[in-house]
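Look over this entry.
=====
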Amino acid sequence: MRKQIAFAFAAAMLAAGPAHATSFLVSTTTAGNTGSSDAGRIYTATNGSGKLNVKVTGWSSINGVIDNSAVGSYGTAGLGIINRNETGANGTHQADSSGGTDFFLLQFDQAVKLTSAVFNSYAFNGYAPDNNALLGWGSTTAAWNSTLPIDGYSYASLASAFKGTALSTGTGASGSRGIALGDQAFGNVWMISATTPDGGKAYDAFKLGGFSVSTMAAVPEPATWAMMLIGFGFAGAGLRYRRRQTAVSFAAA
C-alpha cells in the first residue's frame, strides 16, 4: 500500500514538472547582415532546451507622430536607426534623439523579461556620449513576425499601450549593462528608445549590440494541478495510515 502511495505521489509531482524561467542571449552583431531595412531584422536564439524568435524594427517619434524608420546593421557595432530626417552620414546612423526620438521595437514569439542589453554609445554633434534608454513592455495578439500598424499614429498613444516603462541609465561607456525590473515586467513586445536631451549630454546615441531575456516560468495546466492534488491526497492518506499503525503498535507494547 505504501509503495502504491509513494508511486502515485511521485507520478503527480513529475507530471507537474519544474517551474523555472529560461534565459536567451540575442546577438545583433551578425556579420554579413549589413545595410538598412525598413522591414526590420529577424533573429533566432537557442539555449539547448528551447528556441526564441524576435523581430526588431526601427521607428522614430517626429513631432509626436510615429514614423517607420530603417534599421541599419553595422556588424560588430550592432543595430542603428536612420529616420527620414537623417541621411545616415555624419554619425546619424544610431538610435538617437536628434531629428526625432528613435526607438527599436522587439516583437517576441512569447512573453519575456529584458534582463540586459548592449548599448554601444557614440559621441554625437560634438557632445559627450550618452546612452540612457527608455524601456517599455506590453503585449499584442499580433504574430511576432507581423508588421505592427503604428506608422502615423501618435507617440502618446503608443506609450499608453505599454503596461510599464522604465529608464535604464548609462554612463556613456559602451558595453552591456544589467536591467533590473519588477516581476510584472513581462511582455511579447518591448521598446528600447533613445531619451530626450539631458544636461550637457545633449543627445542619447547608441547602437544596440544585443540583449538578454528570460521567459516566464512554466505554470502547470489545470489537469496537472489536479494530478498534484491527487498526489498530495494520497500522501496524506499514507501519513494517516502510518500514524494508525504506529498507535496500534504502541498500544500492543
